Amino acid sequence: MIPHFTRFSLPKRLTAICRNTAKFCGAFSFLIRHSSSFKATSNNGSRYNGGNPYAAAINNSIYLSYTNGTQHTFLYSDGKITNLGTSLGGSYSNPGAINNSGQLAGSYPTSIYYTVNYYSSYKDEHPLTEQVQEYHAFLYQNGNMIDLGTLPGDTYSNATSMNNLGQIVGTSEKEVFHDTSVYVSGGAYGTEPGYIYHQGYNTTEEQAFIYSNGNMTGLGTLPGGNSSTATDINNSGQVIGDSNTGNNSEHAFLYSQGQMTDLGTLPGYQDSYAIAINDAGQIIGDSYSDYNYNSACPFLYSNGKMTDLNSLIPQDSGWTLLDSRAINNKGQILGYGQIGGQYHAFLLNPISTTATPKDGITVGNISTQGSSVLLQGLKINLTGSNVVTKGGNITFDGSTILNSSTGAYTFNSAKSTATSKGGDITFKNTLDSNSAGASSLSLTAGLGNITFTGLTQLAQAIAYGTLAE
Questions:
Q1: What's the pTM?
Q2: Which of 11, 124, 292, 402 is such that its CA lies 20 to 30 A from the CA of 391?
């Protein structure tokens, strides 16, 4: 089931949200939902005389940043700033990603140079050359900065994302010189000698990579393409990015278990690119045409389907969503759009399967991905055979109100199963109206907990997972 969303606006510069929590990260000055929600804290970054500090990424407890002067990567944790320096010999470094283990990834200029060919004039007999500095991705861990190198034959690499397993994705590339010199024949009477008109141009060939267990591996391209980039990786090792194709277009891809899958585009658009993926495999990105990013449309890719984000919000909201930036494990999405003729950042909150009707709620099969399911109300009747979420939580909340005119709220298990892969299953103040033997509720919480709180009575339950009371 594709979740629908509610939204509120945020400042324009907000760029990302953390995958594991609902915390925010990125380059922003203030984040305001309510005046008392956040407190601004200075990191005193100017102590290194490096110019203005700029925050780049955050994990559950740490963030990294760099300054725009000497441009070193800094680590800020527990009120302390650590200058990571340039131990590999480069003059500066750029941060790219951080995980919850405190490992950092980014790029830096090496002491290695490569040769670039070019012609300055058609009269040049031979291509001129220029020495250009190589840039490499790096990994910082346990106080050491490690050069990740490049794919074979390449001269540049950059790390863009890293998961909690220490797997890093990015792009490796090289410049290729194309000599297109042509021979120009002499005059009509043979009095003018022929000559070679020297010309040429350089192109960049790039390929997405994953760095894992000390090895950098190219991910290839979509069929017919010769260029790809990687933008994000989740904790299951799924990689997203974009690749050109054989029909002169660029498509978002998902790389999982050694297979690159073309995600296609939204109807009416020629191109797409993927921006972020959460641990439930939900992907956000934008679809556009003819490299016109001003007319891009944000999408959510879930359960094998690409959906326009604008179709998932109330149609009378007044919003036109233009761009997506990040998604976390709660399914919350950041981006920016237009409302009332002005541009604003937005946060989309998935709407859970929630109801509080006077006469109760009857629910059939439910299948969500990454979202939570909350069943709340009088006489909750689970008539289908399955309630399944992947990465979300299931809560059966039939709060008992003894002075209610209708009596206690009642849950009816109706021989059903509830499965939450990675989330929790919680029965809160819940009564099962069926007698023992009349119902059989099979519970599977995966890596989560199965919890009974308050006045809870189930006729018969088969539970798999961690039980708690």
A1: 0.65
A2: 11
